[in-house]
Predict the structure.
Amino acid sequence: MPHHVPKIDANMRCGDCPIRKRAICAYCEEPELLQLDDIKSYKTYQAGETIVWAGEEMPLIGSVVSGVATLSRSLADGRRQMVGLLLPSDFIGRPGRKVAPYDVVAANEVMVCHFRVAKFNTLIDSTPALERRLLEMTMDELDSAREWMLLLGRKTAREKIASMLVLFARRGSEAEDKPIKDGLRFDVPLTREEMADYLGLTIETVSRQVSALKKSGVIIVEDARHIRVPDYVRLLNEASDDSDGGFIA
Amino acid sequence: MPHHVPKIDANMRCGDCPIRKRAICAYCEEPELLQLDDIKSYKTYQAGETIVWAGEEMPLIGSVVSGVATLSRSLADGRRQMVGLLLPSDFIGRPGRKVAPYDVVAANEVMVCHFRVAKFNTLIDSTPALERRLLEMTMDELDSAREWMLLLGRKTAREKIASMLVLFARRGSEAEDKPIKDGLRFDVPLTREEMADYLGLTIETVSRQVSALKKSGVIIVEDARHIRVPDYVRLLNEASDDSDGGFIA
DNA sequence: TGTCTACCTTGATCTTGATCAAGGTTTGGT
DNA sequence: ACCAAACCTTGATCAAGATCAAGGTAGACA
């Protein structure tokens, strides 16, 4: 069983929520916005199971509780690029929205995703508050996508790896409600292949760069899925995540 | 004066709109959604002029009429990646939304952008219809960003160039309300440097790949800003834009 | 009309990350 | 406990694209 999967109980109610910080939390935050159905609407997907095919409509709307869902797009010859990554507490699904052509959402990991699914029809002509919340979340997602584009277009392999690890560290600490500090330990929720798809690299390069960061002492690799960071600022520097805030004359 | 800049007349009214197809068109579509101010609210930016700095709020909301606006993000050492490209008819600005840290929106070209600016305060607590429209547009933008990510992460330099040219061809034909056909001619609204920033390449590679496509007979380069396409399908193939619609087992 | 500057092209060489290849490790099923 | 399959690592070589370098072109302006 992977990284601190919160125990889900079919009788849980808001307030018992295992994740808190982000998006709409199906457990504790703004439940009235989602007009939550009864508890039956939790859903779980197995690792590798497809949640929805390209061009179809999302079968659900809610928050990821544990595990990971990914969204990928690929070329005719099989080259694949991950274009979305949903970690615990992330919101998934948009009411009345079809998945864009050739997008694929796949469940990944011991994908223990649980959702409270609302009735779609009530959502589509739903409250202004929900509309606004969805807009807010979608704009946040767009911002993340743009950060990701910077990574894909301009970062070196080593920087890409470091940036990804920073993301995992951040989200991991958030989930556990701990501050990010030196010596932190976190899970790597993706396989090497998925990391490669995430970063626009090959698995060999991913493996090599992780090893290189290890050899430099930036990270301690306990095993392929667990990493410890002795000096968080050093990892941050490796990511070159910092930008110049500049402007164009 | 560049590519067919529509003539803007300070007394124009909806129905005289020079752009039609996409987003909210400030001229003819859904003007009531934007609660348009009077005609004074058109705005023009010079080439290279900055529309808004990182962390600030968009000074306007409306549609690009002509010219190009770009959104870029960069690393501390100056490496820059374009993360947004707004062509005529694209919607610009979100009410009450600050530009993400380190994002920059810059006017580009003989940037003849005109807008009808609505009053922000009325927009922020605006109609459900506008909220929904904004959500729709933001999701479309997210879809484009994801297509762009596939390009950045997995396409070759040649494919990147071809994909970009297809985009320009499409948008150009749309603007002129002509079908895309063989022999079409279109403007390239970016400098080589901007193309490089768009594609995650260097300007030398951009230049070389354009030359290579020319030598292969896929395109006819009239000058750096004007291209003709004898066989549109061939250009499409070069872009490898086609994807497999596949799924993950 | 000439010159300056910004922009573009092409060549030579180098580097990063891809590709090809071989083993090693972990996990899950029986 | 053993085996198979999936996953990961490392090495050797290759190639796409970056970097370094040298002109060329065209529009802006005096």
